[in-house]
Amino acid sequence: MSTSPKITVATTWLDGCSGCHMSFLDMDERLIELVQQVDIVYSPLVDTKTLPDHVDVGILEGSISSEDDLEKAHAFRKHCKILVSLGDCAVNGNVPAMRNHFKLADVVNHAYRDTVAVQPQTPTRGVPALLSVVKPIHGVVGVDVFVPGCPPSADAIWYVLSELIAGRTPDPSSVTRFGA
Amino acid sequence: MPPPAKQPNVRVVTLTIDGRDLSAREDETIIEVCRENQIPIPSLCYLEGLSVWGACRLCLVELAGQGRLLAACSTRVTEGMQIQTNTEKLQRYRRTIVELLFAERNHVCSVCVSNGHCELQYMAQKCGVDHVRVPYRQASYPVDSSHEMFRLDHDRCILCTRCVRVCDEIEGAHTWDVMGRGTECRVITDMAQPWGESDTCTSCGKCVQVCPTGALVKQGTSVGEMVKDQHFLPILARRRHAQ
Ligand code: SF4
Ligand code: SF4
Ligand code: SF4
Protein backbone atom coordinates (compact mmCIF):
# COMPACT_ATOMS: atom_id res chain seq x y z
CA MET A 1 0.00 0.00 0.00
CA SER A 2 1.10 3.49 -0.78
CA THR A 3 2.22 5.54 2.20
CA SER A 4 1.69 8.98 0.61
CA PRO A 5 -0.99 10.94 2.46
CA LYS A 6 -4.39 10.51 0.87
CA ILE A 7 -6.91 13.28 0.49
CA THR A 8 -10.41 12.62 1.75
CA VAL A 9 -13.35 12.95 -0.64
CA ALA A 10 -17.07 12.99 0.12
CA THR A 11 -19.79 12.95 -2.56
CA THR A 12 -23.56 12.98 -2.60
CA TRP A 13 -26.41 13.55 -5.01
CA LEU A 14 -29.17 16.05 -4.53
CA ASP A 15 -31.87 16.59 -7.18
CA GLY A 16 -30.19 14.90 -10.12
CA CYS A 17 -30.29 11.63 -12.00
CA SER A 18 -27.04 10.28 -10.50
CA GLY A 19 -25.56 10.37 -14.00
CA CYS A 20 -22.61 12.41 -12.74
CA HIS A 21 -21.78 9.65 -10.27
CA MET A 22 -22.09 7.12 -13.09
CA SER A 23 -19.69 9.25 -15.11
CA PHE A 24 -17.36 9.19 -12.09
CA LEU A 25 -17.43 5.37 -12.23
CA ASP A 26 -16.76 5.58 -15.97
CA MET A 27 -13.16 6.42 -15.07
CA ASP A 28 -12.84 2.64 -15.21
CA GLU A 29 -9.33 1.39 -14.49
CA ARG A 30 -8.22 4.87 -13.45
CA LEU A 31 -10.34 4.33 -10.31
CA ILE A 32 -7.61 1.97 -9.12
CA GLU A 33 -5.04 4.71 -9.51
CA LEU A 34 -7.43 7.10 -7.78
CA VAL A 35 -7.90 4.97 -4.67
CA GLN A 36 -4.13 5.13 -4.12
CA GLN A 37 -4.56 8.87 -3.70
CA VAL A 38 -7.99 9.47 -2.24
CA ASP A 39 -10.17 8.04 0.49
CA ILE A 40 -13.88 8.17 -0.30
CA VAL A 41 -15.11 8.83 3.21
CA TYR A 42 -18.79 9.40 2.45
CA SER A 43 -20.78 8.76 -0.73
CA PRO A 44 -23.76 6.85 -2.13
CA LEU A 45 -21.04 4.62 -3.59
CA VAL A 46 -19.73 3.55 -0.15
CA ASP A 47 -21.36 2.42 3.06
CA THR A 48 -20.54 5.21 5.53
CA LYS A 49 -23.68 6.80 6.93
CA THR A 50 -22.32 10.04 8.39
CA LEU A 51 -20.31 12.86 6.89
CA PRO A 52 -16.98 13.20 8.75
CA ASP A 53 -16.18 16.52 10.40
CA HIS A 54 -13.24 17.33 8.16
CA VAL A 55 -13.20 16.42 4.49
CA ASP A 56 -10.72 17.73 1.93
CA VAL A 57 -12.94 17.68 -1.16
CA GLY A 58 -16.75 17.56 -1.21
CA ILE A 59 -18.51 16.83 -4.48
CA LEU A 60 -22.18 17.67 -4.97
CA GLU A 61 -24.27 16.40 -7.87
CA GLY A 62 -27.78 17.74 -8.52
CA SER A 63 -29.60 20.94 -7.71
CA ILE A 64 -31.23 22.25 -4.52
CA SER A 65 -34.81 21.14 -4.83
CA SER A 66 -35.95 20.03 -1.36
CA GLU A 67 -35.35 20.70 2.35
CA ASP A 68 -33.12 17.64 2.37
CA ASP A 69 -30.96 18.97 -0.49
CA LEU A 70 -30.62 22.25 1.36
CA GLU A 71 -29.47 20.51 4.54
CA LYS A 72 -26.93 18.36 2.69
CA ALA A 73 -25.50 21.36 0.84
CA HIS A 74 -25.04 23.26 4.10
CA ALA A 75 -23.46 20.21 5.76
CA PHE A 76 -21.05 19.73 2.87
CA ARG A 77 -20.09 23.39 2.90
CA LYS A 78 -19.48 23.23 6.64
CA HIS A 79 -17.35 20.10 6.63
CA CYS A 80 -15.51 20.25 3.29
CA LYS A 81 -12.49 22.40 2.61
CA ILE A 82 -13.09 22.49 -1.15
CA LEU A 83 -16.63 22.20 -2.50
CA VAL A 84 -17.10 21.00 -6.10
CA SER A 85 -20.36 21.60 -7.97
CA LEU A 86 -20.48 18.63 -10.35
CA GLY A 87 -22.66 18.64 -13.45
CA ASP A 88 -25.23 20.98 -14.97
CA CYS A 89 -27.94 20.38 -12.33
CA ALA A 90 -25.52 21.46 -9.62
CA VAL A 91 -24.07 24.30 -11.68
CA ASN A 92 -27.16 25.81 -13.30
CA GLY A 93 -30.27 23.97 -12.14
CA ASN A 94 -30.62 22.20 -15.49
CA VAL A 95 -33.61 19.86 -15.89
CA PRO A 96 -34.85 19.95 -12.25
CA ALA A 97 -35.04 23.76 -12.47
CA MET A 98 -37.40 23.54 -15.45
CA ARG A 99 -40.19 23.19 -12.90
CA ASN A 100 -39.52 26.75 -11.77
CA HIS A 101 -41.86 27.96 -14.49
CA PHE A 102 -44.86 26.40 -12.82
CA LYS A 103 -46.43 26.67 -9.40
CA LEU A 104 -45.13 23.92 -7.13
CA ALA A 105 -48.66 22.70 -6.35
CA ASP A 106 -49.39 22.36 -10.08
CA VAL A 107 -46.19 20.37 -10.61
CA VAL A 108 -46.97 17.98 -7.75
CA ASN A 109 -50.57 17.56 -8.86
CA HIS A 110 -49.50 16.88 -12.42
CA ALA A 111 -47.01 14.21 -11.35
CA TYR A 112 -49.03 12.45 -8.64
CA ARG A 113 -52.68 13.09 -9.52
CA ASP A 114 -53.52 14.36 -13.02
CA THR A 115 -51.42 11.82 -14.89
CA VAL A 116 -51.94 8.86 -12.54
CA ALA A 117 -54.61 6.24 -13.21
CA VAL A 118 -54.46 4.23 -10.00
CA GLN A 119 -54.59 5.67 -6.46
CA PRO A 120 -53.70 9.27 -7.20
CA GLN A 121 -52.19 10.75 -4.02
CA THR A 122 -49.45 13.15 -3.01
CA PRO A 123 -46.68 11.53 -0.98
CA THR A 124 -46.05 13.31 2.32
CA ARG A 125 -44.55 10.69 4.64
CA GLY A 126 -40.83 9.87 4.48
CA VAL A 127 -40.14 12.37 1.71
CA PRO A 128 -38.58 15.81 2.18
CA ALA A 129 -40.70 18.86 1.42
CA LEU A 130 -39.99 20.37 -1.97
CA LEU A 131 -38.84 23.99 -2.20
CA SER A 132 -40.84 26.26 -4.46
CA VAL A 133 -37.77 27.33 -6.46
CA VAL A 134 -34.99 24.97 -7.59
CA LYS A 135 -31.55 26.58 -7.30
CA PRO A 136 -28.02 25.69 -8.34
CA ILE A 137 -25.68 24.79 -5.45
CA HIS A 138 -24.00 28.20 -5.48
CA GLY A 139 -27.46 29.75 -5.11
CA VAL A 140 -27.41 28.63 -1.45
CA VAL A 141 -23.78 27.97 -0.43
CA GLY A 142 -20.38 29.09 -1.68
CA VAL A 143 -18.77 26.78 -4.25
CA ASP A 144 -15.06 26.58 -5.09
CA VAL A 145 -14.96 24.55 -8.31
CA PHE A 146 -17.66 24.35 -10.99
CA VAL A 147 -17.68 21.42 -13.39
CA PRO A 148 -20.48 21.84 -15.97
CA GLY A 149 -21.67 19.03 -18.23
CA CYS A 150 -24.64 16.71 -18.41
CA PRO A 151 -22.87 14.67 -17.25
CA PRO A 152 -19.27 15.89 -17.30
CA SER A 153 -17.20 13.20 -18.98
CA ALA A 154 -15.10 10.76 -16.96
CA ASP A 155 -12.05 12.48 -18.45
CA ALA A 156 -13.25 15.86 -17.17
CA ILE A 157 -13.84 14.48 -13.66
CA TRP A 158 -10.48 12.74 -13.72
CA TYR A 159 -8.75 15.97 -14.77
CA VAL A 160 -10.48 18.03 -12.03
CA LEU A 161 -9.68 15.48 -9.31
CA SER A 162 -6.08 15.07 -10.46
CA GLU A 163 -5.56 18.83 -10.33
CA LEU A 164 -7.11 19.05 -6.87
CA ILE A 165 -5.00 16.14 -5.61
CA ALA A 166 -1.90 17.89 -6.95
CA GLY A 167 -2.92 21.01 -5.02
CA ARG A 168 -3.68 23.04 -8.16
CA THR A 169 -6.83 24.93 -9.16
CA PRO A 170 -8.41 23.20 -12.14
CA ASP A 171 -9.83 25.08 -15.13
CA PRO A 172 -12.88 22.94 -16.00
CA SER A 173 -13.78 25.13 -19.01
CA SER A 174 -10.78 23.62 -20.78
CA VAL A 175 -12.35 20.17 -20.66
CA THR A 176 -16.13 20.55 -20.41
CA ARG A 177 -19.04 22.96 -21.02
CA PHE A 178 -22.76 23.37 -20.35
CA GLY A 179 -24.64 20.43 -21.84
CA ALA A 180 -21.45 18.48 -22.64
CA MET B 1 -29.25 48.80 -43.70
CA PRO B 2 -26.94 46.76 -45.96
CA PRO B 3 -23.19 47.13 -45.51
CA PRO B 4 -21.92 49.99 -47.68
CA ALA B 5 -20.21 48.87 -50.87
CA LYS B 6 -16.44 49.13 -50.68
CA GLN B 7 -15.06 52.20 -52.48
CA PRO B 8 -12.52 51.49 -55.21
CA ASN B 9 -10.08 54.24 -54.17
CA VAL B 10 -9.76 54.37 -50.42
CA ARG B 11 -6.65 55.22 -48.46
CA VAL B 12 -4.70 52.71 -46.47
CA VAL B 13 -4.11 53.39 -42.77
CA THR B 14 -1.63 51.83 -40.40
CA LEU B 15 -2.47 50.75 -36.88
CA THR B 16 -1.40 48.29 -34.21
CA ILE B 17 -3.56 45.51 -32.84
CA ASP B 18 -2.21 43.63 -29.82
CA GLY B 19 1.19 45.12 -30.61
CA ARG B 20 1.20 43.92 -34.22
CA ASP B 21 1.77 46.55 -36.93
CA LEU B 22 -0.98 46.22 -39.52
CA SER B 23 -2.34 48.14 -42.43
CA ALA B 24 -5.95 48.27 -43.50
CA ARG B 25 -8.32 50.12 -45.81
CA GLU B 26 -9.78 53.12 -44.05
CA ASP B 27 -13.34 51.94 -44.80
CA GLU B 28 -12.82 48.75 -42.82
CA THR B 29 -14.00 48.13 -39.28
CA ILE B 30 -11.75 46.85 -36.52
CA ILE B 31 -13.44 43.45 -36.51
CA GLU B 32 -12.92 43.04 -40.26
CA VAL B 33 -9.23 43.78 -39.92
CA CYS B 34 -8.95 41.37 -36.99
CA ARG B 35 -10.68 38.58 -38.89
CA GLU B 36 -8.43 39.11 -41.93
CA ASN B 37 -5.39 38.80 -39.68
CA GLN B 38 -6.59 35.79 -37.67
CA ILE B 39 -6.92 37.86 -34.50
CA PRO B 40 -9.80 36.23 -32.65
CA ILE B 41 -12.57 38.57 -31.52
CA PRO B 42 -15.69 37.04 -30.03
CA SER B 43 -19.04 38.18 -31.41
CA LEU B 44 -22.61 36.98 -31.46
CA CYS B 45 -24.66 39.63 -33.27
CA TYR B 46 -22.00 40.38 -35.90
CA LEU B 47 -22.07 38.21 -38.98
CA GLU B 48 -20.14 38.86 -42.17
CA GLY B 49 -22.58 39.69 -44.94
CA LEU B 50 -25.17 41.36 -42.73
CA SER B 51 -25.41 44.99 -41.67
CA VAL B 52 -23.78 45.96 -38.38
CA TRP B 53 -26.01 45.91 -35.32
CA GLY B 54 -23.58 46.42 -32.40
CA ALA B 55 -25.88 44.91 -29.79
CA CYS B 56 -24.11 42.02 -28.11
CA ARG B 57 -20.99 44.00 -27.13
CA LEU B 58 -18.83 40.89 -27.05
CA CYS B 59 -16.43 42.38 -29.59
CA LEU B 60 -15.44 45.24 -27.26
CA VAL B 61 -11.82 46.35 -27.63
CA GLU B 62 -9.59 48.83 -25.82
CA LEU B 63 -8.23 51.81 -27.70
CA ALA B 64 -5.16 53.60 -26.33
CA GLY B 65 -6.04 57.05 -25.06
CA GLN B 66 -9.76 56.27 -24.80
CA GLY B 67 -11.35 55.44 -21.47
CA ARG B 68 -14.41 54.06 -23.21
CA LEU B 69 -14.43 50.57 -24.73
CA LEU B 70 -15.33 50.36 -28.41
CA ALA B 71 -17.36 47.76 -30.28
CA ALA B 72 -14.98 46.40 -32.92
CA CYS B 73 -17.86 45.67 -35.32
CA SER B 74 -19.07 49.24 -35.51
CA THR B 75 -15.81 51.19 -35.30
CA ARG B 76 -13.86 52.03 -38.42
CA VAL B 77 -10.08 51.93 -38.31
CA THR B 78 -8.20 55.23 -38.32
CA GLU B 79 -4.55 56.11 -38.76
CA GLY B 80 -2.36 55.33 -35.77
CA MET B 81 -4.96 53.46 -33.70
CA GLN B 82 -3.49 51.27 -30.95
CA ILE B 83 -5.92 48.50 -30.12
CA GLN B 84 -5.90 45.77 -27.50
CA THR B 85 -8.34 42.89 -28.07
CA ASN B 86 -7.82 40.56 -25.15
CA THR B 87 -6.93 42.39 -21.94
CA GLU B 88 -7.91 41.11 -18.53
CA LYS B 89 -10.56 43.84 -18.33
CA LEU B 90 -12.10 42.81 -21.68
CA GLN B 91 -12.11 39.15 -20.63
CA ARG B 92 -13.93 40.10 -17.45
CA TYR B 93 -16.55 42.13 -19.31
CA ARG B 94 -17.10 39.45 -21.94
CA ARG B 95 -17.56 36.83 -19.29
CA THR B 96 -20.17 38.97 -17.56
CA ILE B 97 -22.01 39.62 -20.84
CA VAL B 98 -22.26 35.91 -21.55
CA GLU B 99 -23.43 35.20 -18.00
CA LEU B 100 -26.16 37.82 -18.32
CA LEU B 101 -27.37 36.21 -21.55
CA PHE B 102 -27.69 32.89 -19.74
CA ALA B 103 -29.44 34.48 -16.76
CA GLU B 104 -31.94 36.41 -18.87
CA ARG B 105 -33.73 33.52 -20.60
CA ASN B 106 -33.81 29.79 -20.06
CA HIS B 107 -30.90 27.92 -21.55
CA VAL B 108 -31.03 24.27 -20.63
CA CYS B 109 -28.31 23.04 -22.96
CA SER B 110 -28.74 19.38 -22.04
CA VAL B 111 -32.24 19.34 -23.56
CA CYS B 112 -31.63 21.88 -26.34
CA VAL B 113 -31.66 20.79 -29.96
CA SER B 114 -28.63 23.01 -30.61
CA ASN B 115 -26.54 21.38 -27.89
CA GLY B 116 -23.03 21.00 -29.29
CA HIS B 117 -23.67 23.32 -32.25
CA CYS B 118 -24.46 26.56 -30.49
CA GLU B 119 -22.46 29.78 -30.67
CA LEU B 120 -23.60 30.95 -27.23
CA GLN B 121 -22.64 27.68 -25.59
CA TYR B 122 -19.27 27.78 -27.36
CA MET B 123 -18.78 31.39 -26.29
CA ALA B 124 -19.48 30.46 -22.67
CA GLN B 125 -16.81 27.80 -22.76
CA LYS B 126 -14.31 30.09 -24.48
CA CYS B 127 -14.91 32.91 -22.02
CA GLY B 128 -14.53 30.57 -19.05
CA VAL B 129 -18.16 30.81 -17.98
CA ASP B 130 -18.40 27.67 -15.86
CA HIS B 131 -21.31 29.10 -13.83
CA VAL B 132 -23.55 32.16 -13.75
CA ARG B 133 -22.97 34.49 -10.82
CA VAL B 134 -26.27 36.37 -10.98
CA PRO B 135 -29.62 34.78 -10.13
CA TYR B 136 -31.57 33.36 -13.07
CA ARG B 137 -34.62 35.45 -14.00
CA GLN B 138 -36.79 32.35 -14.46
CA ALA B 139 -39.28 34.17 -16.71
CA SER B 140 -41.38 32.00 -19.00
CA TYR B 141 -41.24 32.50 -22.74
CA PRO B 142 -43.39 30.86 -25.41
CA VAL B 143 -42.49 28.55 -28.28
CA ASP B 144 -43.94 29.12 -31.76
CA SER B 145 -44.23 25.81 -33.62
CA SER B 146 -46.85 27.00 -36.09
CA HIS B 147 -44.52 27.03 -39.12
CA GLU B 148 -44.60 23.72 -40.96
CA MET B 149 -40.81 23.61 -41.33
CA PHE B 150 -39.30 25.69 -38.55
CA ARG B 151 -39.69 26.44 -34.86
CA LEU B 152 -39.00 29.51 -32.72
CA ASP B 153 -38.13 29.08 -29.03
CA HIS B 154 -37.90 32.46 -27.30
CA ASP B 155 -36.19 30.83 -24.33
CA ARG B 156 -33.06 30.42 -26.45
CA CYS B 157 -33.19 33.80 -28.21
CA ILE B 158 -30.44 36.29 -27.41
CA LEU B 159 -31.93 39.10 -29.52
CA CYS B 160 -28.95 39.32 -31.83
CA THR B 161 -31.36 40.19 -34.72
CA ARG B 162 -29.41 38.13 -37.23
CA CYS B 163 -32.76 36.65 -38.31
CA VAL B 164 -34.28 40.10 -38.76
CA ARG B 165 -31.36 41.30 -40.84
CA VAL B 166 -30.90 38.24 -43.05
CA CYS B 167 -34.62 38.09 -43.87
CA ASP B 168 -34.70 41.78 -44.74
CA GLU B 169 -31.30 42.28 -46.37
CA ILE B 170 -30.64 38.98 -48.12
CA GLU B 171 -33.99 37.25 -48.63
CA GLY B 172 -35.88 40.55 -49.03
CA ALA B 173 -38.98 39.26 -47.26
CA HIS B 174 -38.74 41.27 -44.00
CA THR B 175 -40.83 38.78 -42.07
CA TRP B 176 -39.00 39.42 -38.80
CA ASP B 177 -39.05 42.43 -36.54
CA VAL B 178 -38.38 43.27 -32.92
CA MET B 179 -41.12 44.19 -30.48
CA GLY B 180 -41.13 45.50 -26.89
CA ARG B 181 -38.45 46.88 -24.63
CA GLY B 182 -36.06 45.52 -22.03
CA THR B 183 -36.97 42.08 -20.82
CA GLU B 184 -40.22 42.25 -22.84
CA CYS B 185 -38.22 42.55 -26.04
CA ARG B 186 -38.71 39.71 -28.49
CA VAL B 187 -38.48 38.91 -32.16
CA ILE B 188 -41.80 38.67 -34.01
CA THR B 189 -42.98 37.49 -37.40
CA ASP B 190 -45.11 39.92 -39.42
CA MET B 191 -47.36 41.86 -37.02
CA ALA B 192 -46.67 39.52 -34.09
CA GLN B 193 -48.71 36.76 -35.69
CA PRO B 194 -47.82 33.08 -35.52
CA TRP B 195 -44.97 32.34 -37.95
CA GLY B 196 -47.05 29.69 -39.68
CA GLU B 197 -49.61 32.32 -40.64
CA SER B 198 -47.04 34.68 -42.10
CA ASP B 199 -47.88 36.05 -45.58
CA THR B 200 -44.35 37.25 -46.17
CA CYS B 201 -42.22 34.25 -45.16
CA THR B 202 -40.93 32.31 -48.17
CA SER B 203 -39.78 29.39 -46.00
CA CYS B 204 -36.25 29.87 -47.32
CA GLY B 205 -34.72 28.97 -43.96
CA LYS B 206 -32.01 31.65 -44.01
CA CYS B 207 -33.02 32.95 -40.59
CA VAL B 208 -32.70 29.44 -39.15
CA GLN B 209 -29.21 29.00 -40.57
CA VAL B 210 -27.88 32.29 -39.21
CA CYS B 211 -29.45 32.02 -35.75
CA PRO B 212 -26.50 31.45 -33.41
CA THR B 213 -28.52 29.48 -30.85
CA GLY B 214 -31.33 26.95 -30.62
CA ALA B 215 -33.94 29.73 -30.91
CA LEU B 216 -34.60 29.01 -34.58
CA VAL B 217 -34.42 25.39 -35.66
CA LYS B 218 -35.79 23.04 -38.26
CA GLN B 219 -38.78 21.06 -37.05
CA GLY B 220 -38.05 17.41 -36.37
CA THR B 221 -34.26 17.70 -36.32
CA SER B 222 -32.37 15.79 -33.69
CA VAL B 223 -29.49 17.23 -31.70
CA GLY B 224 -26.85 15.60 -33.90
CA GLU B 225 -28.41 17.04 -37.07
CA MET B 226 -28.82 20.63 -35.90
CA VAL B 227 -25.69 21.91 -37.61
CA LYS B 228 -26.08 25.35 -39.10
CA ASP B 229 -24.59 26.36 -42.42
CA GLN B 230 -23.67 30.01 -42.73
CA HIS B 231 -21.29 29.77 -45.64
CA PHE B 232 -23.95 30.90 -48.05
CA LEU B 233 -24.22 34.30 -46.43
CA PRO B 234 -21.10 36.20 -47.53
CA ILE B 235 -21.52 34.81 -51.05
CA LEU B 236 -25.16 35.89 -51.32
CA ALA B 237 -24.36 39.23 -49.69
CA ARG B 238 -21.61 39.96 -52.23
CA ARG B 239 -23.88 39.03 -55.12
CA ARG B 240 -26.68 41.22 -53.80
CA HIS B 241 -24.49 44.24 -53.31
CA ALA B 242 -22.79 43.77 -56.66
CA GLN B 243 -26.13 44.16 -58.47
S1 SF4 C 1 -29.37 27.84 -27.31
FE1 SF4 C 1 -27.27 27.22 -26.94
S2 SF4 C 1 -26.79 28.05 -24.92
FE2 SF4 C 1 -29.01 28.06 -25.14
S3 SF4 C 1 -29.68 26.11 -24.30
FE3 SF4 C 1 -29.40 25.77 -26.48
S4 SF4 C 1 -27.30 24.99 -26.63
FE4 SF4 C 1 -27.48 25.94 -24.63
S1 SF4 D 1 -37.60 31.41 -43.63
FE1 SF4 D 1 -36.72 32.99 -44.98
S2 SF4 D 1 -38.44 34.33 -45.47
FE2 SF4 D 1 -39.09 33.07 -43.73
S3 SF4 D 1 -38.63 34.31 -41.97
FE3 SF4 D 1 -36.82 33.04 -42.32
S4 SF4 D 1 -35.46 34.25 -43.61
FE4 SF4 D 1 -37.48 35.21 -43.66
S1 SF4 E 1 -34.15 34.13 -33.07
FE1 SF4 E 1 -31.97 33.61 -33.25
S2 SF4 E 1 -31.22 34.97 -34.87
FE2 SF4 E 1 -33.17 35.80 -34.19
S3 SF4 E 1 -32.65 37.31 -32.63
FE3 SF4 E 1 -33.06 35.39 -31.57
S4 SF4 E 1 -31.07 34.41 -31.36
FE4 SF4 E 1 -30.85 36.01 -32.92
TrEMBL record, chain A:
<dbReference type="GO" id="GO:0016491">
    <property type="term" value="F:oxidoreductase activity"/>
</dbReference>
<protein>
    <submittedName>
        <fullName>NAD(P)-dependent nickel-iron dehydrogenase subunit HoxY</fullName>
    </submittedName>
</protein>
<dbReference type="InterPro" id="IPR006137">
    <property type="entry name" value="NADH_UbQ_OxRdtase-like_20kDa"/>
</dbReference>
<dbReference type="GO" id="GO:0051538">
    <property type="term" value="F:3 iron, 4 sulfur cluster binding"/>
</dbReference>
<dbReference type="InterPro" id="IPR051349">
    <property type="entry name" value="Hydrogenase_assoc-protein"/>
</dbReference>
<feature type="domain" description="NADH:ubiquinone oxidoreductase-like 20kDa subunit">
    <location>
        <begin position="17"/>
        <end position="164"/>
    </location>
</feature>
<keyword id="KW-0411">Iron-sulfur</keyword>
<keyword id="KW-0560">Oxidoreductase</keyword>
<keyword id="KW-0408">Iron</keyword>
<keyword id="KW-0479">Metal-binding</keyword>
<dbReference type="GO" id="GO:0003677">
    <property type="term" value="F:DNA binding"/>
</dbReference>
<dbReference type="Pfam" id="PF01058">
    <property type="entry name" value="Oxidored_q6"/>
</dbReference>
<keyword id="KW-0371">Homeobox</keyword>
<dbReference type="InterPro" id="IPR037024">
    <property type="entry name" value="NiFe_Hase_small_N_sf"/>
</dbReference>
<keyword id="KW-0003">3Fe-4S</keyword>
Automatic annotation (TrEMBL), chain B:
<keyword id="KW-0520">NAD</keyword>
<dbReference type="Pfam" id="PF13510">
    <property type="entry name" value="Fer2_4"/>
</dbReference>
<dbReference type="Pfam" id="PF10588">
    <property type="entry name" value="NADH-G_4Fe-4S_3"/>
</dbReference>
<dbReference type="GO" id="GO:0046872">
    <property type="term" value="F:metal ion binding"/>
</dbReference>
<dbReference type="InterPro" id="IPR036010">
    <property type="entry name" value="2Fe-2S_ferredoxin-like_sf"/>
</dbReference>
<feature type="domain" description="4Fe-4S ferredoxin-type">
    <location>
        <begin position="192"/>
        <end position="221"/>
    </location>
</feature>
<dbReference type="InterPro" id="IPR017900">
    <property type="entry name" value="4Fe4S_Fe_S_CS"/>
</dbReference>
<dbReference type="InterPro" id="IPR019574">
    <property type="entry name" value="NADH_UbQ_OxRdtase_Gsu_4Fe4S-bd"/>
</dbReference>
<keyword id="KW-0001">2Fe-2S</keyword>
<keyword id="KW-0472">Membrane</keyword>
<dbReference type="InterPro" id="IPR001041">
    <property type="entry name" value="2Fe-2S_ferredoxin-type"/>
</dbReference>
<keyword id="KW-0371">Homeobox</keyword>
<keyword id="KW-1278">Translocase</keyword>
<dbReference type="InterPro" id="IPR017896">
    <property type="entry name" value="4Fe4S_Fe-S-bd"/>
</dbReference>
<feature type="domain" description="4Fe-4S His(Cys)3-ligated-type">
    <location>
        <begin position="89"/>
        <end position="128"/>
    </location>
</feature>
<feature type="domain" description="4Fe-4S ferredoxin-type">
    <location>
        <begin position="148"/>
        <end position="179"/>
    </location>
</feature>
<dbReference type="GO" id="GO:0042773">
    <property type="term" value="P:ATP synthesis coupled electron transport"/>
</dbReference>
<feature type="domain" description="2Fe-2S ferredoxin-type">
    <location>
        <begin position="11"/>
        <end position="89"/>
    </location>
</feature>
<dbReference type="InterPro" id="IPR000283">
    <property type="entry name" value="NADH_UbQ_OxRdtase_75kDa_su_CS"/>
</dbReference>
<dbReference type="GO" id="GO:0016020">
    <property type="term" value="C:membrane"/>
</dbReference>
<dbReference type="GO" id="GO:0003677">
    <property type="term" value="F:DNA binding"/>
</dbReference>
<keyword id="KW-0411">Iron-sulfur</keyword>
